Amino acid sequence: MINPDDMKNTTLDKLFKIYKKYIPNSKPNENSQLCMLWDGAPDVLETTEQLNDINDAFDTYIEEDDAVKIFDMSLLETSKYLKNKLNQK
Known about the structure:
Low-confidence stretches: 1-7
Distance between the termini: 30 Å
Number of helices: 4
Number of strands: 0
Strand content: under 5%
Radius of gyration: 12 Å
Mean pLDDT: 89
Shape: globular
Largest sheet: none
């Protein structure tokens, strides 16, 4: 288990903050599923407020194909995906 005190301003910490924005009473952990940010699966993820918040938090742009991939990921898996994407810039 990851210690929350060690996550200040990390990729995972930013995802936790976004998760709590959309699910305020939750206590997210690294196994929490990103798909929970949405009320069901939208037809297009690319234009949703949730994905826009992720893009803004990481100063990136996630296209629809990649959005579909991360939709089914845990927060930890998503943080690894984002780190790799950001390192490719």
